[in-house]
Amino acid sequence: MSNGKKEILLVPQKPLLGGRLFGTKGIRAKETNRPWMELREVMRKKGFELKTIDESSDISKAHAVAFIETPLPNNPFYKHCLTHNMQDRLYLITFEPSVIHPPNHDARSHKNFKRVMTWDENLIDANREKYVKANFTLPILEGEKVIVPRSKFSEKKLLCLISSNKYSHRKNELYSERVRAIRFMEKEHPKDFDLYGVGWDQPVLAWPIASILPLNAAIQKFYPSLKFLPRMRSYPSYRGTVGDKKGTLPNYKFTIAYENELDARGYITEKILEAMLGGCVPVYLGDPNIARMVPKECFVDKKEYPTYPELYDYLASVGEAEHTAYINSMEAFLNGEKVRPFTITAFIESFMLMLEIN
């Protein structure tokens, strides 16, 4: 108990322990952590106190423990919960796709969890009692007014890509497809394209072991602080990192918005959603049923342009009126009923459904 309230303990990645999951310090933390902050306030009104698990004085007395991403068997918090026979109070929230964290999508890894929040429609279809649908969440509540930024069409550059440089050897990964897009633009239309993100000036290990062990993540974490190491110049279009996408995206007509995994049902992330918030038309590749959730008038479907010359020809042909129509459709979507599954409001409802809290 905490101040007379029942404890619900969350187990995020290590950097977000110590209550930092609910913090506002750091680049974009106020936005990215807002769903958790809003959830905590709602749960307080219902008699529960949300904490990160390390803030609890006695984990075994918690009303519930919810892991964020499927823990590995050697996770100390997970081992503690199993040792204390807490399976009937263990819950799971998954975000990462199988190309990053396969256990999130293996039902055998979920046997010790009472219920699971996931976007994976294959798991949901197989067991609707155990799995609860939850989408990636925009930093907005249902009904909040969203104004999409608009800048002069004539001053916008054609295309950008904002993403970290990553590698995976697993089936359906889209990291290599991003590189193909980058290389095409750098070779054929360098003046029309800019690249942003972490790791494009650092080495990336293209070995299967590097996507099993967090080797590239370690490189990206420590490489910037090691000033004596050379910065790679493999990508001429690279313009550095971006603190806030909303300050960069309005300067471009289109942005490459590929998910990390191809054809994963239900996997619709910030790649497309944040592009729209930033007033930049996304070129999308990922969920095969994207138009069921996001109107096709809001994005360019890469699958309709099999080659990059075909895609470029279309993007370059879009005039101001057609581009404005995209922006208007994006703003209508973000302020309409169809955006609801991606709101904090829906996220909170899914969380309460998982824990069976009214």
Description:
By secondary structure, the chain is of the alpha/beta class. The protein has two domains: 6-138 and 341-355, Rossmann fold; 153-334, Rossmann fold (3-Layer(aba) Sandwich), CATH 3.40.50. The chain has helices spanning 29-32, 34-45, 76-83, 121-126, 175-188, 215-222, 270-277, 290-293, 308-317, 320-334, 344-355; strands spanning 6-11, 48-52, 64-68, 90-93, 115-118, 131-133, 157-162, 193-196, 252-258, 281-285, 300-301. The protein has a six-stranded parallel sheet, sandwiched between helices. It has a five-stranded parallel sheet with strand order 8-7-9-10-11, with helices on both faces. α4 (121-126) links the parallel β5 and β6 (131-133). The two termini are 20 Å apart. The model has no long low-confidence stretch (mean pLDDT 93).
